[in-house]
Design brief:
single chain, 276 residues, alpha+beta, 2 domains, 10 strands
Length: 276
C-alpha cells in the first residue's frame, strides 16, 4: 500500500502490478492520485521484494498488507472504511492512514469491535517505520462471519481522537519549525528529530505546556540553548504557575528577567566555545 508521489509510484508499478485507487468509490474519490494506492504483489520475487523494502527508506508512506480474499478477489472494504473517519461531533475527516507515521497510532486506538471490522478485510499489516525499516507484522483476527453489508463510518470517540492528536504533535510542531525557524532544527536523521521532539513535548506537557503555539516556543528555546533548559531551578516557580493553569507559557515568558535568560543562554554549547 502506497502514498508515494507519481514518479516513485510508477517505478514501483513496473516491478509489480498496476495500482488500485482505494478511494475511488468513497466520499474522497476526488483525491485521485493524492489518495492511497494498493499495489498487488502476488508472487513477487525475492529480489523485487528487497527493492520494494529499500525504495521507501526514510519515507513513511509504504506498508504491506495481506488481505482476505472473496471469490478470488482481495477484499478492500475496510481499507476505505479506515479513511472515512468521523468524530463524536459528527465531523467527517480523511484519515491518512497510509502515512505510516499515523498508521501505528491509529491501529493502537481501535476498539475491539473496530479491530474486528478491520479483520474482515486485513489478515496482517506491516509498514516502513520512521527509521526506514520494516516493522513487526500486526495480525488481525478473522470474524466468524464476513459480510459485504456496508458498515457505518469509523467513529473515533473523544479519547481516541485526543490520543491520535497527541501522537501527531511532534510532526505538527516540526512542520511549524520548518516554517518559522529552520536554522535551529538539529542536523540529524528524521527519526532522531522525531524522538527528540517527542521527549521535549512530553517534558513540556508535564509542566503544563500543552497548546501548539506554546509548545513551539518551548521547543524553540530548547533547540536554541539546551534540551534540558526546563530543569533549571530558577524556572521551577514558572512551571508551577503554568501547571496550575494560572497563566500560559507565552505569558510567563514575558516575566522572565535577564538573569533567567542568561542562565538559559549559558546552557548553549556555542556560548562555551565563544568564551573558550
Amino acid at each position: 500500500m502506497s502514498m508515494l508521489n507519481a514518479q516513485m509510484l510508477a517505478r514501483m508499478e513496473r516491478h509489480a502490478s498496476p495500482s488500485i485507487q482505494l478511494l475511488e468509490t468513497s466520499r474522497y474519490a476526488a483525491y485521485e492520485e493524492l489518495g492511497p494506492r494498493l499495489i498487488p504483489m502476488k508472487r513477487l520475487q525475492a529480489d523485487k521484494l528487497k527493492w520494494f523494502l529499500g525504495a521507501s527508506d526514510g519515507v513513511p508512506a509504504l506498508s504491506f498488507v495481506e488481505l482476505q480474499v472473496s471469490e478470488g478477489s482481495p477484499r478492500r472494504q475496510s481499507l476505505v472504511w479506515l479513511a472515512e473517519t468521523k468524530t463524536d461531533d459528527d465531523v467527517h475527516l480523511y484519515c491518512r492512514y497510509t502515512d505510516t507515521r499515523i498508521l501505528p497510532a491509529l491501529l493502537d486506538q481501535l476498539t475491539e469491535n473496530q479491530t474486528t471490522t478491520l479483520g474482515s478485510t486485513v489478515r496482517r499489516w506491516a509498514w516502513i517505520n520512521r527509521e526506514g525499516k520494516l516493522s513487526q507484522k500486526k495480525s488481525f483476527p478473522t470474524p466468524e462471519e464476513i459480510s459485504d453489508a456496508p458498515v457505518p463510518p469509523l467513529s473515533l470517540d473523544k479519547r481516541q481522537f485526543a490520543e491520535m492528536m497527541q501522537a501527531a504533535e511532534a510532526d505538527l510542531i516540526f512542520g511549524m519549525l520548518r516554517e518559522s525557524s529552520p536554522e535551529i532544527i538539529p542536523d540529524t536523521t528524521p527519526s532522531d528529530i522525531h524522538q527528540r521532539l517527542s521527549n521535549l513535548l512530553d517534558a513540556g506537557r508535564e509542566r503544563g505546556v500543552v497548546d501548539a503555539p506554546d509548545q513551539l516556543q518551548f521547543v524553540a528555546i530548547a533547540w536554541s540553548s539546551s534540551e534540558t533548559f526546563y530543569q533549571l531551578p530558577c524556572l521551577a516557580p514558572s512551571w508551577e504557575v503554568i501547571r496550575n493553569r494560572q497563566a500560559r507559557f507565552s505569558d510567563v515568558l514575558k516575566t522572565w528577567d535577564d538573569n533567567i535568560w542568561e542562565q538559559i543562554d549559558a546552557l548553549n554549547p556555542a556560548a562555551h566555545r565563544e568564551h573558550a
